[in-house]
Amino acid sequence: MKVVDHIKNANGKTLFSLEILPPLKGENIRTLFDNMDPLMEFKPPFIDVTYHREEYVYKKKENGLLEKRSTRKRPGTVGICAAIQNHYKVDTVPHIICGGFNKEETENALIDLHFLGIDNVLALQGDAIKSEARFIPDPDGHKYASELVEQVVKMNQGRFIDEELENASPTNFCIGVAGYPEKHFSAPNLKIDLKYLKNKIDLGAEYIVTQMFFDNQKFFEFVAKCREIGITVPIIPGIKPITTKTQTNVLPTIFHIDLPEELADEIEKCKDNAAVKQVGIEWTVKQSKELMQHGVPLVHFYSMGKSDPIYKIAKQLF
Prior knowledge:
Elements: H1 3-9, E1 15-20, H2 29-36, E2 46-49, E3 55-60, E4 66-71, H3 77-88, E5 91-97, H4 103-115, E6 120-124, H5 145-156, E7 174-179, H6 190-203, E8 207-212, H7 216-228, E9 235-239, H8 247-255, H9 261-269, H10 273-293, E10 298-302, H11 308-315
């Protein structure tokens, strides 16, 4: 079922959903299921599965020269989605990204997802790999998520790269895109960032999932600005509980977000990460309750592979 249909069928009730990481290469899928099993108590209508593109490493050869090799630490997004749907009978939302794919490879991945009965995709530009100072698209690939949205929409219309195909069966994907309450780091300001977001909706995206945030007021203002410019699709808040002191520096750096002074001060007082985790859980519960009171369609949790804090939060909310 499509994400927008799950929202419609909820009749105004706020739903629980989460995003997971594929297991590290070499790990057993049982590890993933063991983490997910407790969270199924809260009946998520769908589960997002991230995609991690290949990186490059240089290995020194016997002759002293360096050999460039590609590696992926978390393979298997398509397979993980299929395994989750088979194991839990729950819809999945695979992330599809621009980086690391040309258009034909993207089309082939989408065809595989369609064959598996997966109805949703989240279209993202994706991050630059560590060896690149900025995002560089693949040759004959997409530079922007909006271009990815266009390709999925064309496939939904039965239009494939091979224009000579006759009577091609159209796909039927519900397309989600990312939104940034504190603006995307590459955008000069929020107004321009919202213009790009509106373009993705106009092209055919059906819902928005936000980057994590810790200040609800920024989310409410973001939603208001979206509505002002004619964005009417569901906007889903993305939430992550802080669990370690290190995250107070890492999260703002990686995701270009701010931490409220009150939250940062409370974490600063903590003597260990067990105390930080408790502060993070309490903050997220308070944050989620306010969002639910404002009628958000879902509260979408970024689990980062750790289910325990999400379980403790959801137990108080759903």
